[in-house]
Amino acid sequence: MAVLITDSCINCDACIEECPATAIVSADESPLENGEYTYVKPEKCIECVDAAVPKCADVCPTEDCIVWDMPYIAEYNDYFVFSDRYVIREHKKKGLMSPDVNPMPWRESIPMEQREMNVSVGQTLKLYN
């Protein structure tokens, strides 16, 4: 994982169809108890590491709506598992699909400071690519 959709989302759902990992769901399908806007499942997000820009951010009509979050790797397991931002999917056989169990690819070129501050994907990619 590494992208997060903020509360500036207008729920247009343009990003849902573009996500190659099917990691994005509408507000109605959000696993959050009071999900009000489009949600990214961190256990599925691949940051579109094989593309120049994450596809969700490329089609989003709302500037700065999609921001970087921490990488979905074991080092940040507690961050994701105990966060009120996320509800991690539970697999019938494998259990909780936490970063310890299911780490995801991430853009190492994005500085951790930018991720910690949830800097806009578009803004950061202009600086580092």
From TrEMBL:
Q: Does the keyword Glycosyltransferase apply?
A: no
What are this entry's molecular-function GO terms?
A: iron-sulfur cluster binding; metal ion binding
InterPro entries recorded: 4Fe4S_Fe-S-bd, 4Fe4S_Fe_S_CS
User: Has keyword Iron-sulfur?
Assistant: yes
**Record keywords, A-Z:** Iron, Iron-sulfur, Metal-binding
SUPFAM superfamilies in the cross-refs: 4Fe-4S ferredoxins
Q: What is this protein called?
A: 4Fe-4S ferredoxin-type domain-containing protein
